[in-house]
Amino acid sequence: MMGTNAVRRLMGVLDAGWRGGTLHGLRALFRLLAWGRPLPGGPCDPTRVRALVIFSTAGIGDTLSDTPAIRALRERFAAASFVAVVHRRRQEVLEHNPHIDRLIPHRKGPAGFFRSLCAVRAAHPDVAVVLRVNDPEILPLAYLSGAHTVVGRPANTRFAFLINRPAPVPDWHRLHGVEQTLAVVRELGAETADPRLVFCVSAQARERIRRHLALRGLEGEALVAMQIHASPRLAFRDWPEASFIALGRAILQKHPVRLVLTGGRGDREKAASIQRALGERATYFAGELSLGDTAALLERCQALLTTDTGVMHLGFAVGVPTLALLHPFNAYRVGPYGYGERHRAVVLEGPMEDEQGNLRSLAKLPPERAYAAFCELLGREAAPRNP
User: Fold this and answer.
1) How much is the pTM?
2) Is residue 28 one of the residues assigned to a domain?
């Protein structure tokens, strides 16, 4: 019998092959299948569509940005059942979404593909809607789902020939993330007057956070959340530790609040260092909370301070006034959308790149600007001093 480590090594080899040569072979295979068995297509009468499968397998922020498009589809196909395929590590994003009847958590690799395929086909969808394609196997899944109509943006995938109801969206890269997938579902006549993100916090998560806060003596305190993040892959979007400390000190000196430091497991060290510098009026939660519990915590906060993270989008969705510290690289695509004056975005000023053509670091965004925007967010006048 193979040991656990041997099984993991074997699965790693299979996944690597799947991502490499296997997918090239699949592309040729599906070209042949699409030629021999084209999808019937035809109009999508909302009264005759019994089931839809929706593919949204991106990160936390992009999946949340897809929720207005899902709402639009629900408003268009009100009588249909809705199944959503979501990345297995992101299923909590859509778990309690009122517009979805069932979730299928998707895992990359050959085993995950066939497991998802069986689950999708069991739903007997009439229409498959591909909102985002981070994984190349998603379009083959949509094609094999049994749906007579596959909707998606051809330029987002190497399997564009499997889409029989294309949504070109030529200005995709100039649109906000919410508008991107709303443009895709307009191909089906779906539209919504409410472009806000959707995340429903469970009663269980609220109770867990109530207990967390009670144990730390924070229940009833005025809380401000500070999302700490360090991204080795996209480090230019990160704000340095010293800037978080400077902003935190300014807030604590002027405002009678407690700071709660959130973040993922990889952010623990940075968050702990910031907490030590800020002292007893800052509490460390980084790496300790699930996404749902983080949302329940944000519901109790007066404000959220964050860079471009999945938690930033979560803040928008749960309604906590959010101050987003953004790099001009993608501020237009990820900032608050459809919320009026509820949230604020502070964007690094000046050119996006330096003289050598490298993206400038968000470290160039001064804490003074962030502090002034924080005071404005809370409807208070900024103190005439630097943090």
Assistant:
1) 0.89
2) no
